[in-house]
Amino acid sequence: MAERRSERLAQIVGAARALLEERGPDALTMRSVAETLGIRAPSLYKHVPDKADLETAIVADGLAEMADVHAAAIAGHPDPLLALAQTYRAWALHHPHLYRLMTAKPLDRDRLPEGLEDRAAAPIVDACGGDPDRARAAWAFAHGMVSLELADRFPPDADLGAAWSAGIDAYRPMEVSADPPR
Amino acid sequence: MAERRSERLAQIVGAARALLEERGPDALTMRSVAETLGIRAPSLYKHVPDKADLETAIVADGLAEMADVHAAAIAGHPDPLLALAQTYRAWALHHPHLYRLMTAKPLDRDRLPEGLEDRAAAPIVDACGGDPDRARAAWAFAHGMVSLELADRFPPDADLGAAWSAGIDAYRPMEVSADPPR
DNA sequence: GTCTATATCAAGATAGAC
DNA sequence: GTCTATCTTGATATAGAC
Predict the structure, then answer these.
(1) Which 8-state DSSP code applies to residue A109?
(2) Which chain A positions have a beta carbon within 8 Å of B155's beta carbon?
(3) For B144-157, what is each residue's pLDDT tens digit?
(4) Cα(B129)–Cα(B131) distance, rounded to whole angstroms?
(5) Are A166 and B104 inside 8 Å of each other by CB?
(6) Do residues B82 and B168 make contact, with C-beta atoms less than 8 angstroms apart?
(7) Beta-carbon neighbour count of residue A7 at 10 Å?
(8) Which domains does chain B have, with CATH numbers?
């Protein structure tokens, strides 16, 4: 999995990701993936051991993309925490099904490229000044906001922008956060 | 749904909740619910319109229970935010499948008892001093922590207790949060 | 309010031929 | 590396008799 892929395998993962993103998790079936490529479902099993492996490949794709996007977002930004929060939210909202696949179940770390998980986490740790506990709390906040928004679980009248601001302020270094917003 | 229930309906909801909690969402089928009660699946449809309605009844059950547990947790507690956080986490971890059903998709507010959603949210708003935006941020943090823990998505070496502490401190009133815990 | 019978649908995966 | 044929499984829900 971590080694170089055949062309065909890359096509399969690409088709699977597109299917997931465009039509949701229920549409991600071995049959549909095959159909997209103009072949039959059983043929996929010459390239992929099973569906779980295919999903892991999609997750790896998403993780790598998120890592790049977030690293770029904080680079040289005067307010990295704010930049990261905005980028995190925007990416998740643009890739709802993929985001859910990436966060709703355990990572299959054995089948994931070495170091990828850390690379994806690095921008958050950086933005939190290197404190891993604070970084996990900040991640939980962002993940909670995003997953409740994706699940449409906030009350209809909730001001999510204001909730994000309240949360971001809470994670700022003390000197800044001691300064009341208004 | 919000009106008084027949005995039979209460038994059905109870059996369904037990099935969900003990054997997970895939085990929650109309067949299994019926089997638990010693009847056949089609008979359920004399009492419940469809499966979605049954799930909503389970969610209402869980919401009411959470509302009571959390209200009791903050009542007269010197550190309501801490008490609430601990109670929130413990309840979710003890009811993982139910918690997920309650948070992973939109509430069917039309079939939920009037005022229940607000009653469940009240303890968090109270613990946040009445500020709804701050309360939503705090809820998102707690939900994020819990759902990542339930999904086993944190790295194996993560100190979740420390992450919770970091997050809770961030949501304290300013005066207190400037004061280090120990 | 319960039953049996059934419609309807769809999934992941394997065997073995070419 | 692709195919056809098939296994195995299991779900929600309705019709209509009793």
Answers:
(1) G
(2) 117, 121
(3) 999 999 999 999 99
(4) 6
(5) no
(6) yes
(7) 7
(8) 7-170 (1.10.357.10)
